[in-house]
Amino acid sequence: MSDTVKMTEAARQRLEAEVEKLEGEGRREKAERIGIAREWGDLKENSEYHAAKDDAAMLEAKIARMRDQLRSAEIVEAVGGDSVGMGSKVTYADAKSGKELTFTLVPATEADPGQGRLSIDSPVGEALAGAVQGDERKLETPRGPQTVRVVSVD
Question: What ranges do the domains of the chain cover?
Answer without folding.
Answer: 5-75, 89-153
